[in-house]
Amino acid sequence: PDAYCGRTTFGIVAGVIGTLVCLAIVGMKIAASSVPFVAECCAALVLTTMNAFVVAYIISPAGPGSSLGNLYYFSWISLVTCCMLIASCFETYKSGGESSTATNAHSAGAEMTSTNGNGVEDIAVDPLDNDENI
After folding, report:
1. Which of 13, 28, 59, 123 could cysteine-pair with 35, CB 3.0–4.6 Å?
2. What percent of the chain has pLDDT over 90?
3. Cα–Cα distance between 63 and 72 in angstroms, integer?
4. How distant, in Å, are the alpha carbons of 19, 26, 74 from that of 23?
5. More reliable by pLDDT, 84 or 5
6. Left (φ > 0), alpha (ψ -120 to 50) or beta: where does 125 sit?
């Protein structure tokens, strides 16, 4: 029973650490509109490594997630999601630092133009038919 409780505690602590790291990255993106690429990649590597250990300890036959259930499935989903984060970082690195997602209104197809003289700006929206981000 002590090993079972220790593994459960490890899973909870890993979940809290993962949540705090993700909130820190999101907070940096909201506050500064960007996060240093190295910090994002390091966070992805740490989360992936940590989730690999979570899957190993939680899903093992003596662990709390050994039977099929929410803990089993979401442990694996968490690891796969972290692997997707690493793949996204690698794609960004490979493309020279340009993200494949739209980051501002102009790249998303909206353009601000002033067409009338009363100080109100009209929004002209470009068609998205030929946009490679879709």
Report:
1. 28
2. 49
3. 10
4. 6, 5, 19
5. 84
6. beta
Q: Check if the beta carbon of residue 47 is closer than 8 Å to that of residue 88.
A: no
Q: Which amino acid is at 111?
A: E
**Phi/psi at 98 (nearest 5 deg)?**
-90, 125
Sort 124 into a burial class: Cβ within 10 Å, 0-12 / 13-18 / 19+. exposed
Q: Are 121 and 112 in contact (CB under 8 A)?
A: yes
Indicate the helix (H) or strand (E) that contains 129.
Answer: none
Structure tokens of 31? 């506050």
pLDDT at 72 over 60: yes
pLDDT at 53 over 90: yes
| Pairwise CA distance, residues 24 & 44, whole Å | 12
pLDDT band at 107, cuts 50/70/90? very low
